[in-house]
Amino acid sequence: MTEIASETGRDERTTTETRFGAARRFGPVLLGLAAAVPPLMMLREVLRSPQLHFYDYWWVLLDITHDDGSLRPWALFGFRNEHPFVLPSLLFWLSARFGHGLNQPLGLLIIAFGVGCVLLVRAMLPAHLNRWQRAGLVTATSTLVFNPHGIHNYVRSMSGASWILAMLLVLTALAAMQREHRFTAVGAGLLASISYGTSFAVWPALAVLARLRGERRRWVVAPVVIGVVVVAAWLVLRGPQGGGGSSPTDDPAQAMLAGLSMLGMIWTGTQPTAALLAGVAGIAVLALHARLDREQRRASAAWWALAVYAVGCAVMISGSRAAFGETAGLQSRYNSMTAALWIAVLVIVVAWPRRPGIRTAAVAGTVVATVALGAPMAQGVRDDAPNQQLLAVAARIGHPDAFADRFPAPDRLLPRLRALGHYPFSPEFTLGCGDGVEIGSRVNTATWRVPSLGSYREPRPDGRDVLLNVETDQVRGGARMLGGWAISGIERARCAAVLDAGGTVVGGGVIDLPRADAEAQTPGIEIGLGFQAVAPAGNTGPLRVAFRFPDGWWIRPLTENPQVAS
């Protein structure tokens, strides 16, 4: 019996050792593979995003093209809100000329830039880290680069074309200097400097890196000199520039709030106070780890340089954006600079710890907390998507009058888009209705049903009605803007289109909009009953708005006397 028990014990120990051995072998691999999850989640967001480009893209397109849509090459070297914008402008032109001006493909390229950032950080990690530490830091880096706080940069690709590209080039410069490829580092720094103005912070970062690595004095001084020349050239060439909003503040406290909250924004949902405290905490953690011996300084130089870059960005942003209010530092597009600081903090804390016991907690806590806290920011960006989709319809029918804050100078911009075959004048544009219901098509509505009651309500035997409710019918310039909610039984509308009296599709809209008030009146049905639509205001004859439901089409006429916006 003793021998049997002994054999059993040995077998159990062998099994346990085998399991721990497998965990040691494959655990780091699995942890490293988790780094693929954040970019895949962001990929899903991009593929759900509108195809129409956003905001600054249109201003740049106006600047860099002639009336016929052809390129004005020298205009690529202009400025946007005082920022050098050469490489983003080039990307915008390539998107317009060869990509039908679609937002999503450019968003995919920005995701590739983000992946490049993660791979560069992985290549720069200290050699003495073990497999678990390397895998954890790579996954944390991926989480920070593709954090929900930064969804703006990917879903609105025109933003990431400057911010994420700039970060990629800055990391390339730091990685090159770390490996003593000094001219490559300078070249990458120059490319970063013509991508966005915040990238000017790469030059002091390169000088710090060279100094901590013990480089010769000329390679410490050279980045500073180049940076001074770059900034001087920028000051001379930019000329008088227009920028939205207030003038930069002269209140130091307001500037500190903006800068520090930018550095800590990933640690809050929407509260600038929490973000400020997190930014202070990040800098404090770095200060606690500042006492290093000569070899440690050399090995950690790239990460201190990355932190200098992040702080430099915060200083520039605080000086120019603080007057926009207490939440000025909490903009989604600033996530890349925040990520730069916290990547540096995590690498330093893990590789040269003052308290080794907190390393795992620091990495895991950063991953979990920052992702969860980014939910409000991400939802805010998602909630804006229907406005952009409606703008696409308005632009397609030639009347984006109600979207002056999103679509500038339509009399100049629309001809360019038509000449380029740019979305929404490209084959990719659709109302999503099926049945051949597209702008300009003529459809037979003989089988489409009209509610029988004057209120456009159709009672059903099961007690659940068809309701086609148009609450807003307003003329704004050349556009007729419609809004309301629609339901058939327990089903929301799957599509909305506007037709003239002859059955020609002259407009369309977006559906699945939250309408809590309507949903409260009709318990037990699907959410997302709201719709918005747009049609030409000058159309002769009565218009009709039609909705596609799972059980077919329902249609209702519109008043011939819509309200005129004041």
From TrEMBL:
UniProt KW Transmembrane helix keyword: yes
Membrane-spanning parts: 26-43, 106-125, 160-177, 183-207, 219-237, 257-290, 302-324, 336-353, 360-378
Keywords annotated in UniProt: Membrane, Transmembrane, Transmembrane helix
Keyword Cell wall biogenesis/degradation: no
Domain of life of the native organism: Bacteria
Protein name: Glycosyltransferase RgtA/B/C/D-like domain-containing protein
